[in-house]
Amino acid sequence: MKCKGCGVELQYEDPKKIGYSPKADALYCQRCYQLTHYGKLSYSFKEDVRSGSLFQKIASLNALIVWIVDLYDLESGFRQDITEFFRDRDVLMVCTKRDLLPESVGQEKLAKYLKMRLADKKVSVKGIVVIGEHGYDGKEEVLYAIDMLRKDRDVVLVGTTNAGKSTVLKNVFGMDDVTISRYPGTTMDLIEMPQKEYTLYDTPGFNQENSIQILADDKDMDYIVPKKKVKPQTFQLKSDQSLAVGGIMRIDIVGGSSTSATCYFAEKLPIHRGKISDADRLWKEHFGKLLVPTVNSTYFTKKTEYKKRYAKTDLVIVGLGWICVSGDYEKIVISGCDEAEVVIRKAMI
Q1: How far apart are CA 213 and CA 331, in angstroms?
Q2: What Cα–Cα distance (Å) separates residue 145 from each residue in 68, 83, 127, 214?
Q3: Is residue 57 part of a domain?
Q4: Domain tally, the chain
Q5: Residues 175 and 56 occupy one common structural domain
Q6: pTM summary value
């Protein structure tokens, strides 16, 4: 028997192994039960899910693919192996967490931006639906789009960890059995959910290994994953100033006379401004103390330079958020967690 929350095979002998439940008639493993009722994480699945076998299972299904993408963490959704797998397959793109973005981002502007990013990644989809408010805003549009595109096939939900698949299942499809959590890697195996006219499949989230949400400790998710609408924090920077994004990244704005840097991160994530000339000292003295959270026990010194590309440029720290930079500057130098991916894109907002 499988856990109704994460899909893992239930077992009743070893509390240290996944799928354990102390009760032989339980519907959920102990981990899912504790997550659902107490928000307590007893075991992380971050390293347990691998994409190769998942793709094989999904490919074996005669199903419309519903691609769940987190608008706030958009670049995580564009994993190369996922986008390549989607080619020559019918895909409906469902973008979640619309309510986390500022209200200044209108629906028309957002749709145009998403189409531009899809074109950049050479991904073709049959339709795009944007939802918010935990899936309640846009629910009917999702169900209508599925009815139009399904063509007598089943439906499979696919996406990276923490993209919002479980929330969609619960609030769009009315499936109350799934486990919803801010921690990455909640679902472990395909879960079949019979509907009136088709079978709905939930799948484990694909791990984006260079995402801060995967690299960071689960205890630091409060700093990393926003729980409510993100409030932009803008810094007016003079020449040669630096921003420390917690203890994760350092952004040096080199040259120029006046630069605007607007930060889109979770409310608890601290941002510190200073001079580039003093930044090394700041990191050495305050790393892991004032500069938190951290991903590694030591601060990496590898530096990556980016020349100015657009009038307004987003520096996306995958799995964390982004900084929109505009104005007069020569270049941007990024250092910090070498394992994390940084994406440079034309500004979303």
Answers
A1: 27
A2: 14, 20, 8, 31
A3: yes
A4: 2
A5: yes
A6: 0.81
Whole-number average pLDDT of the chain: 87
Same domain (yes/no): 126, 51: yes
Q: Which residues of the chain have pLDDT under 70?
A: 36-52, 177-189
CA 32 to chain centre: 21
Domain around 56: 44-208
77 is written with which tokens? 């959704």
Cβ contacts of 237 within 8 Å, gap of 6 or more: 243, 253, 258, 259, 260, 261, 273, 327
284 and 328, same domain (yes or no): yes
Domain boundary among 173, 208, 243: 208
pLDDT at res. 185? 47
Provide the sign of the torsion angle of the four alpha carbons 124, 125, 128, 131, taken in this order. Answer: negative
Give the model's pLDDT for residue 188: 54
In a domain, 311, yes or no: yes
Cα first-last separation, the chain:
47
